[in-house]
Amino acid sequence: MKQGPGPEPEGRIDISKNPGGKLRVGIFPLTSDAGCQLEFLNLQDDLLALAKAVDILHFPMARAFNVDGPFDVVFVDGVPARRDELEILREVRRNTKVLASLGSCSSFGGVPAAQRFHDLGDLKKYVYRGMEDLDTLEILPISNYVRVDLQLRGCPASKWEIMETLTALIAGRLPQLKTYPQCIECKIKENRCLLIEGQPCLGPITRAGCGVVCPSVGVPCDGCRGPTEEPNLTSAVEILLRGTTYPDLIRKFQKFCSLSPEYQEMFDRWRETQ
């Protein structure tokens, strides 16, 4: 069943537009809090400017009438938590040329994936009192079911990355998404380093692209954008433990990206101690 995201293509991309010359776009919600979809509306005037080159054909949050494709690019927000959502995801993949995961839930399983650290039966009793027989799927990133071409991370996804993705695809190229750590952007903004102040900030091992919104107001990064490539977890954990306990640090890693392959060894070691 697992297909994985596959290698992200580089350079130009061949997307033939419809007769009107516009990029055909779909925004599909699965199980989520809808915050990533809201970021499209938060583009405000920029979204109006894009309307000359983009035709958003499916967006239930903003449209009363939606079509089911075909699309040039589809953004998927959330995870399939029910079998009908899984079928929607697979149908979307068949009807689009480029599929992008939108946010941490679709990219990594997000907050819903934290269920794997708890008893599912107990969770159902707590969340769905009186409906414990509700049929739910194991929470997994959408790349476990379909090929993902682009990954827009974050909780919520970055408006900058949404805009960069759309404008790049309009031009027939792939977006240039940031891959370096958050700390670089903090230095550019001349933010004070929260790690030096003894706060458990995941900036050194978290991929940039959100504009370091949290550290800029004194809130440590929670790592919602997922790990950088080959993060130095050993050194990071050693430094982070100066400002928190090991159990609290584990919970911090579990919050958004508990299914990130880079973190699995750390979680496995933690389970062995329980």
Account of the protein in words:
The protein has 274 residues and is an alpha/beta fold. 31% of the residues lie in helices and 11% in strands. It has ten helices and five strands; from the N terminus they run E-H-H-E-E-H-E-H-H-E-H-H-H-H-H. It has a five-stranded parallel beta sheet, sandwiched between helices. It is globular and about 60 Å long.
Write the layout of secondary structure elements.
Layout: E1 23-29, H1 35-41, H2 45-50, E2 54-58, E3 71-77, H3 83-94, E4 96-102, H4 104-108, H5 120-127, E5 150-152, H6 159-170, H7 182-188, H8 233-240, H9 246-257, H10 264-272
Parallel strand pairs: 1-2, 1-3, 3-4, 4-5
Main β sheet profile: 5 strands, parallel
Please, how many helices?
A: 10
Number of beta strands: 5
The low-pLDDT segments are: 1-10
Strand content: 5-15%
Query: Order of strands across the widest beta sheet?
Result: 2-1-3-4-5
How large, in whole angstroms, is the Cα Rg? 19 Å
Helix content range: 25-40%
Structural class: alpha/beta
Helices and strands, in order, run as: EHHEEHEHHEHHHHH
Mean pLDDT: 89
Shape by Cα distribution: globular
Distance between the termini: 30 Å
